[in-house]
Amino acid sequence: MIKRLLIALVAVIGMSAAAAARDTYAHDASVLPKAAQTTLSQNFKAHVSVVKIDKDFGRISDYEVILTDGTEITFDRDGNWENVEVSVNGTIPSAFIPSSIADYVRTNMSGQKIVGIEKERTGYDIELANGVDMKFDKNGQFRPLRRITTCITPNYLLYQRAIPGTSGCGSLYPCLPQHVRKQQPEIAVSDINR
Q1: CA-closest candidate to residue 162, choices 180, 175, 150
Q2: Does the predicted TM-score (pTM) go above 0.90?
Q3: Which of 26, 109, 167, 188 lies 20 to 30 Å from 149, alpha-carbon distance?
Q4: Residue 97 vs residues 3, 26, 125: alpha-carbon distances, Å
Protein backbone atom coordinates (compact mmCIF):
# COMPACT_ATOMS: atom_id res chain seq x y z
CA MET A 1 0.00 0.00 0.00
CA ILE A 2 2.77 2.42 0.92
CA LYS A 3 4.63 1.50 -2.25
CA ARG A 4 1.59 2.41 -4.43
CA LEU A 5 1.11 5.65 -2.57
CA LEU A 6 4.76 6.55 -3.08
CA ILE A 7 4.55 5.76 -6.82
CA ALA A 8 1.40 7.88 -7.15
CA LEU A 9 3.08 10.76 -5.32
CA VAL A 10 6.12 10.60 -7.61
CA ALA A 11 3.84 10.53 -10.68
CA VAL A 12 1.91 13.60 -9.50
CA ILE A 13 5.12 15.51 -8.81
CA GLY A 14 6.51 14.52 -12.22
CA MET A 15 3.37 15.65 -14.06
CA SER A 16 3.25 18.97 -12.21
CA ALA A 17 6.92 19.60 -13.00
CA ALA A 18 6.30 18.83 -16.66
CA ALA A 19 3.30 21.17 -16.72
CA ALA A 20 5.34 23.96 -15.12
CA ALA A 21 8.13 23.52 -17.69
CA ARG A 22 5.89 24.18 -20.70
CA ASP A 23 6.62 27.16 -22.88
CA THR A 24 3.95 29.84 -22.93
CA TYR A 25 2.93 32.39 -25.55
CA ALA A 26 1.71 35.96 -25.38
CA HIS A 27 0.78 38.64 -27.91
CA ASP A 28 2.04 41.80 -26.25
CA ALA A 29 5.28 43.15 -24.81
CA SER A 30 3.93 43.50 -21.26
CA VAL A 31 5.14 39.98 -20.37
CA LEU A 32 8.75 40.96 -21.13
CA PRO A 33 11.21 42.34 -18.56
CA LYS A 34 11.46 46.16 -18.50
CA ALA A 35 14.89 46.12 -20.21
CA ALA A 36 13.47 44.17 -23.16
CA GLN A 37 10.44 46.47 -23.40
CA THR A 38 12.77 49.50 -23.47
CA THR A 39 14.97 47.90 -26.17
CA LEU A 40 11.93 47.22 -28.36
CA SER A 41 10.38 50.66 -27.95
CA GLN A 42 13.66 52.51 -28.62
CA ASN A 43 14.84 50.48 -31.64
CA PHE A 44 11.87 49.06 -33.54
CA LYS A 45 8.81 50.64 -35.14
CA ALA A 46 7.00 47.32 -35.63
CA HIS A 47 4.79 45.98 -32.87
CA VAL A 48 5.06 42.67 -31.06
CA SER A 49 3.24 39.85 -32.82
CA VAL A 50 4.18 36.88 -30.62
CA VAL A 51 6.27 36.37 -27.49
CA LYS A 52 7.36 32.82 -26.68
CA ILE A 53 8.47 32.41 -23.08
CA ASP A 54 10.90 29.48 -22.95
CA LYS A 55 11.07 27.65 -19.65
CA ASP A 56 13.56 25.10 -18.38
CA PHE A 57 12.51 23.18 -15.28
CA GLY A 58 9.76 25.69 -14.59
CA ARG A 59 12.11 28.69 -14.71
CA ILE A 60 12.14 31.22 -17.55
CA SER A 61 15.26 30.76 -19.66
CA ASP A 62 14.61 33.28 -22.43
CA TYR A 63 12.05 35.19 -24.46
CA GLU A 64 11.69 34.83 -28.23
CA VAL A 65 9.92 37.83 -29.76
CA ILE A 66 8.56 38.08 -33.30
CA LEU A 67 7.56 41.53 -34.52
CA THR A 68 4.88 42.27 -37.13
CA ASP A 69 7.56 42.98 -39.77
CA GLY A 70 9.10 39.50 -39.25
CA THR A 71 12.02 40.61 -37.10
CA GLU A 72 13.01 38.01 -34.49
CA ILE A 73 14.71 38.99 -31.24
CA THR A 74 15.80 36.74 -28.39
CA PHE A 75 16.19 38.14 -24.87
CA ASP A 76 17.64 36.41 -21.82
CA ARG A 77 15.58 36.13 -18.62
CA ASP A 78 16.77 39.60 -17.51
CA GLY A 79 15.75 41.30 -20.77
CA ASN A 80 19.21 41.60 -22.37
CA TRP A 81 19.16 40.90 -26.10
CA GLU A 82 21.02 37.81 -27.31
CA ASN A 83 20.08 37.54 -30.97
CA VAL A 84 18.45 39.76 -33.61
CA GLU A 85 17.42 38.62 -37.10
CA VAL A 86 15.63 40.63 -39.77
CA SER A 87 14.44 39.75 -43.26
CA VAL A 88 16.87 40.10 -46.17
CA ASN A 89 15.16 43.40 -47.06
CA GLY A 90 15.35 44.72 -43.49
CA THR A 91 18.18 46.27 -41.53
CA ILE A 92 19.27 45.75 -37.95
CA PRO A 93 19.22 49.00 -35.97
CA SER A 94 22.70 50.43 -35.46
CA ALA A 95 22.35 50.26 -31.66
CA PHE A 96 22.86 46.48 -31.84
CA ILE A 97 26.00 46.55 -34.00
CA PRO A 98 29.33 47.66 -32.49
CA SER A 99 30.88 50.42 -34.62
CA SER A 100 34.04 48.42 -35.37
CA ILE A 101 31.92 45.60 -36.86
CA ALA A 102 29.84 48.04 -38.91
CA ASP A 103 33.03 49.70 -40.19
CA TYR A 104 34.59 46.34 -41.11
CA VAL A 105 31.50 45.23 -43.05
CA ARG A 106 31.19 48.61 -44.77
CA THR A 107 34.86 48.51 -45.82
CA ASN A 108 35.33 44.85 -46.72
CA MET A 109 31.86 43.70 -47.77
CA SER A 110 30.60 46.76 -49.60
CA GLY A 111 26.94 46.74 -50.49
CA GLN A 112 26.07 44.05 -47.94
CA LYS A 113 23.70 44.58 -45.04
CA ILE A 114 23.87 42.85 -41.69
CA VAL A 115 20.64 40.86 -41.30
CA GLY A 116 21.54 38.88 -38.19
CA ILE A 117 23.66 39.39 -35.10
CA GLU A 118 24.14 37.08 -32.14
CA LYS A 119 26.06 37.68 -28.93
CA GLU A 120 28.29 34.75 -28.10
CA ARG A 121 30.51 34.06 -25.13
CA THR A 122 33.61 35.03 -27.13
CA GLY A 123 32.18 37.80 -29.31
CA TYR A 124 29.65 38.24 -32.09
CA ASP A 125 28.38 36.13 -34.96
CA ILE A 126 26.83 38.14 -37.78
CA GLU A 127 25.03 37.14 -40.95
CA LEU A 128 25.03 39.24 -44.10
CA ALA A 129 22.20 39.54 -46.64
CA ASN A 130 24.16 37.32 -49.07
CA GLY A 131 24.22 34.49 -46.49
CA VAL A 132 27.83 34.91 -45.37
CA ASP A 133 28.46 34.35 -41.64
CA MET A 134 31.27 36.26 -39.98
CA LYS A 135 32.73 36.05 -36.48
CA PHE A 136 34.10 38.92 -34.44
CA ASP A 137 35.69 38.97 -30.99
CA LYS A 138 34.31 41.01 -28.08
CA ASN A 139 36.30 44.05 -29.24
CA GLY A 140 34.72 43.86 -32.70
CA GLN A 141 37.85 42.53 -34.43
CA PHE A 142 37.23 40.12 -37.32
CA ARG A 143 38.15 36.48 -36.63
CA PRO A 144 38.80 34.67 -39.90
CA LEU A 145 37.60 31.10 -40.16
CA ARG A 146 40.27 28.45 -40.52
CA ARG A 147 40.15 25.96 -43.37
CA ILE A 148 39.88 22.28 -42.49
CA THR A 149 42.37 19.91 -44.08
CA THR A 150 41.18 16.33 -44.47
CA CYS A 151 43.34 13.32 -45.29
CA ILE A 152 41.96 9.85 -45.92
CA THR A 153 44.52 7.09 -45.59
CA PRO A 154 44.20 3.66 -47.19
CA ASN A 155 42.91 2.16 -43.95
CA TYR A 156 40.07 4.70 -43.91
CA LEU A 157 41.23 6.74 -40.96
CA LEU A 158 40.14 10.34 -41.25
CA TYR A 159 42.50 13.04 -40.02
CA GLN A 160 41.34 16.62 -39.72
CA ARG A 161 43.22 19.69 -38.69
CA ALA A 162 42.57 23.36 -39.13
CA ILE A 163 45.56 24.69 -41.08
CA PRO A 164 45.35 28.27 -42.37
CA GLY A 165 46.00 28.62 -46.10
CA THR A 166 46.07 24.93 -47.02
CA SER A 167 43.74 22.90 -49.16
CA GLY A 168 44.88 19.33 -48.56
CA CYS A 169 47.83 17.09 -47.79
CA GLY A 170 49.30 16.84 -51.28
CA SER A 171 51.93 14.38 -52.39
CA LEU A 172 54.82 16.14 -50.58
CA TYR A 173 53.11 15.74 -47.21
CA PRO A 174 51.82 12.18 -46.94
CA CYS A 175 49.15 11.50 -44.32
CA LEU A 176 50.67 8.47 -42.68
CA PRO A 177 49.41 7.80 -39.15
CA GLN A 178 52.89 7.65 -37.60
CA HIS A 179 54.06 10.79 -39.36
CA VAL A 180 50.91 12.73 -38.53
CA ARG A 181 50.86 11.68 -34.89
CA LYS A 182 54.54 12.63 -34.42
CA GLN A 183 54.35 16.00 -36.15
CA GLN A 184 50.81 17.05 -35.22
CA PRO A 185 49.60 15.35 -32.02
CA GLU A 186 46.53 17.61 -31.73
CA ILE A 187 44.89 16.10 -34.82
CA ALA A 188 41.52 14.48 -34.21
CA VAL A 189 41.28 10.92 -35.45
CA SER A 190 38.08 9.06 -36.12
CA ASP A 191 37.59 5.68 -37.70
CA ILE A 192 35.35 5.40 -40.74
CA ASN A 193 34.41 1.75 -41.02
CA ARG A 194 33.48 0.93 -44.57
Answers
A1: 150
A2: no
A3: 109
A4: 59, 28, 11
